[in-house]
Design goal:
This protein has 19 helices and 17 strands. By secondary structure, the chain is an alpha/beta fold. It binds beta-D-glucopyranose. The site of beta-D-glucopyranose has 10 residues, from loops.
Length: about 425
Amino acid sequence: MKNVVFGAVSAAALMSANAVVAEPQAEVLHWWTSGGEAKSVAVLQQEFADNGGTWTDMPVAGGGGDAAMSALRARVLAGNAPTAVQLKGPAIQEWYEEGVLADISAVAEAEGWADVLPASIAGHMMCEGTWCAAPVNVHRVDWIWANADVLEANGIAMPTTWDEFNAAAEKLQAAGIIPLAHGGQAWQDATVFEAVALGILGPDGFRKAFVELDEATLTSDEMIAVFDQMRTLRGYVDPNFPGRDWNLATAMVMNGEAAFQIMGDWAKGEFLAAGKAPGEDFLCASVPGEGFLYNVDSFAMFDVEGEDNQAGQALLAKLIVGPSFQKVFNLNKGSIPARVDVALDEFDSCAHLSAKDMTASSEGGSLLPSYAHGMALRGAQSGAITDVVTSHFNSDMSSEEAVKQLATAIANSL
Ligand code: BGC
């Protein structure tokens, strides 16, 4: 297995003020193209430029990153990998096993990452004991977003159970409001599905199903109930949902066309970029049920030639985990910092709730990796689940049939 260590020259050059410094360069592949996302990635571009770096942008539009991952594969197969890539969860280790990642341990050790990152996050950034990715944030996936005025005008409080959610949705529908803003793309279906599953299966059931792939849980009555709730939710989306981008669904909540969206807190980045205030214009609450589904964005550096590129990788890794970037980026992105030592004073109430719930879930054993956002499973398994989820959501497949297909799809993917 080939694994590339940063040239001692470039790492040393970066660390030493007196050395002749290479000119840091990076071609950065990412999928942050919506309003809130673009504002957030601009923070990194600016910091990189302020530190003498030259950034070549390679944005690949498409929420959830499926298109970006296809673009990455094509580039690597062509022997022309980008220098830095937005990559996360087990996909990092999958690429490492292909021998195409650079080792960023020199930066991680010089910057003391082990002391400022929670062990659960650091674990995702390690490949056989070396650092192979730099974490950006913690996004929470299991959120409901709502238009505050729409709820108030209809006498609806933020739902705390799925029954309350369904009752609110019926009332809104009768009033001519779209209850649930949704975009019919497989990853968005999966996002809603895992949020529903967390509530209905509970944290232990979620872990058994989507981390351990336990067949009994995948085919249980509770899993049937999860698909039943998905069928109910399908009745609350408007007819134009197929193919809609997630940020356009967020805009429907913003402008009052729809009441709710079930989406990770990158949706908050959209509200904020549009000048909306949490608690006034929009509301956030975790989905009914216990637990916390985390989704950590990170960057991996690919094995590339040239001192300038390697200096760019080292600089980028250093900035990404640096306290200033972690604060400013996450204020825009809707997430919370991955570092534990960044003060949250300037963050809003949704971020505070996220941080509080994350700590409590971590202590209570209900801090769980998002399967829909590639944190829990390898690509073959998460893809197999999402295929079933999306074909159930977009057909009249029964919930019983869906759990059968789920078990078969998982068995075939192993
Ligand atoms: C990423 C977020 C991104 C979202 C929508 C998620 O998988 O973690 O950073 O904003 O997809 O594209």
